[in-house]
Design brief:
- The chain folds into 3 domains: about 20-95, Winged helix-like DNA-binding domain superfamily/Winged helix DNA-binding domain (Arc Repressor Mutant, subunit A); about 115-195; about 235-315 and about 330-344, no CATH class.
- It has helices at about 20-25, 30-40, 50-55, 60-75, 115-125, 125-140, 145-160, 165-175, 180-195, 200-220, 230-240, 245-260, 265-280, 285-300, 335-344, and strands at about 75-80, 90-95, 300-305, 305.
- By secondary structure, it is mainly alpha-helical.
- It is built from 15 helices and 4 strands.
- Strands 1-2 form a two-stranded antiparallel ribbon. The chain has a two-stranded antiparallel ribbon with strand order 3-4.
- Helix 6 (about 125-140) runs parallel beside helix 8 (about 165-175).
- A hairpin with a 2-residue loop joins strand 3 (about 300-305) and strand 4.
- This is Primosomal replication protein N.
- Pfam families: DnaB_2.
Length: about 350
C-alpha cells in the first residue's frame, strides 16, 4: 500500500545527508539516531553534553556513548583546537556533506570501552557475569537486548563493580518501580562514584536515602503515600546530584510552602538549584546569601525581583490580606521562581 504523507509542521529545516539515511541509520540504535539528529539541529551552536542529555531525557553517559559510536562509524570526527582552554572545548564535525559543531565545555568523561557482541560473548565465559545477567533478567522479567547487555558489561567489566552489588542495584531499582536500563545504569554509576563496593554499604546508603525522602514527603504533608517517579527524581537530584544534606533541603521545602501554600517539587528544585549555583553548602551561607540579596534590594539594584532600570530603591511587596499582621519578606525570591515556572 502506497503511503503519501505531508508534515503539518512549519518548515524550519535541518538537512540530513542521504548517505547517513542510506548507509548508517538502519544499523544504529534508535537513541543514537535521536542524538545525531539533535546535533544536526544545533549546527554551529555551542552545546554541552549535559544540555544534550537534558533535552533528550538521556544520561550524560548515554550521550557519551552515542558520540563514541558515531565517531567510530566515521560519521563524526573530533577536532581539538590548538589553543584550547583548560575546559578543552571539543567540536564534533559530521561527515558526508553535513557539518555541525558541538563545543562542549564540560570536563571529558572517563573513556568508555565499546562492547561488541563478540566481546560480550567472551564475557559469557565468566560465571559471575553470566549469573548477573540471568538474575537481572529475572528481576526485570525480560530478555535483554544488546544495548542492555552492553550496559551490564560496562558496569561489571569496565567499572569493575562486583556482581553481587550490581544484582542489588537491579533489586533496589525494580522494587522502587524503576525498570528502565538508563535508570539502573545511573544508580549504579552513582554508587560507583560514591565508592561503594559492597551490598552492605549500598543498603546503608539506601536506608539514609529512605529517611531523607520520608522527611521531604512529611515536610510537604504527603506522608500518607509513597513518592511518585518524578518526585523521586527530584529528591535524587537534591541529595545525590546536588549533594545537599537534609537540613538544607528542609529549608527549601519550608520556603516553598511559605511561598506557594502547597507542596511543589519544581519550586523547591528552583530554590536548591539556585543555591547550588551560588556555591552554598550550609545554613550560614544561605543566611549570608539572603543578607546580600536584601542589601542589593535596599540599594535599588532590584525592583520586584528584577534589576531596576532607574536605580531607585525597590519597594518591598506587601500582602493584600488585611488579616496578615506579620511583616512580609523583603526578598522576592517567590516572584522570581513563580515567573520562571510559568514560563516553562
Amino acid at each position: 500500500m502506497a503511503v503519501n504523507v505531508k508534515s503539518s509542521l512549519k518548515i524550519r529545516a535541518t538537512v540530513i545527508s542521504n548517505d547517513f539515511i542510506d548507509e548508517y541509520m538502519s544499523m544504529a540504535n534508535g537513541e543514537y539516531i535521536k542524538e545525531y539528529l539533535f546535533l544536526m539541529r544545533h549546527d554551529g551552536e555551542e552545546i554541552t553534553i549535559s544540555m544534550i542529555a537534558d533535552a533528550l531525557n538521556h544520561t550524560e553517559a548515554d550521550v557519551a556513548r552515542a558520540l563514541a559510536y558515531w565517531k567510530k562509524a566515521g560519521v563524526l570526527s573530533e577536532e581539538i583546537p590548538v589553543k584550547a582552554e583548560p575546559s578543552k572545548a571539543v567540536s564534533e564535525t559530521a561527515c558526508s556533506g553535513t557539518a555541525t559543531e558541538v563545543k562542549t565545555k564540560t570536563q571529558p568523561l572517563a573513556k568508555r570501552t565499546a562492547y561488541s557482541p563478540e566481546k560480550i560473548s567472551g564475557l559469557a565465559g565468566d560465571e559471575d557475569f553470566s549469573q548477573l545477567l540471568y538474575i537481572a533478567q529475572k528481576y526485570m522479567n525480560k530478555v535483554f537486548t544488546q544495548r542492555e547487555c552492553e550496559v551490564f558489561a560496562y558496569l561489571y567489566d569496565g567499572l569493575h563493580m562486583p556482581s553481587e552489588l550490581l544484582e542489588y542495584v537491579v533489586e533496589y531499582c525494580v522494587q522502587g518501580g524503576h525498570t528502565s536500563i538508563r535508570y539502573i545504569e545511573t544508580v549504579a554509576i552513582s554508587w560507583h562514584e560514591k565508592g561503594m563496593k559492597t551490598v552492605e554499604e549500598a543498603k546503608n546508603s539506601a536506608t539514609t536515602y529512605s529517611k531523607d525522602s520520608y522527611a521531604v514527603m512529611r515536610a510537604f504533608g504527603l506522608n500518607d503515600r509513597n513518592p511518585g517517579d518524578s518526585e523521586r527524581e527530584f529528591m535524587d537530584r537534591w541529595f545525590s546530584t546536588y549533594g545537599f544534606n537534609r537540613e538544607i533541603v528542609m529549608e527549601a521545602c519550608n520556603r516553598t510552602l511559605a511561598a506557594t501554600h502547597s507542596p511543589s517539587f519544581p519550586y523547591a528544585d528552583k530554590i536548591l538549584d539556585g543555591w547550588k549555583k551560588a556555591g552554598v553548602r550550609t545554613m550560614e551561607e544561605i543566611k549570608r546569601l539572603d543578607e546580600q540579596y536584601a542589601e542589593r534590594l535596599k540599594s535599588g539594584d532590584y525592583k520586584n525581583g528584577k534589576k531596576s532600570s532607574t536605580g531607585t530603591q525597590a519597594k518591598p511587596r506587601t500582602g493584600q490580606n488585611q488579616f496578615q499582621n506579620f511583616p512580609q519578606r523583603e526578598i522576592d525570591y517567590d516572584a522570581l521562581i513563580l515567573d520562571q515556572l510559568k514560563q516553562q
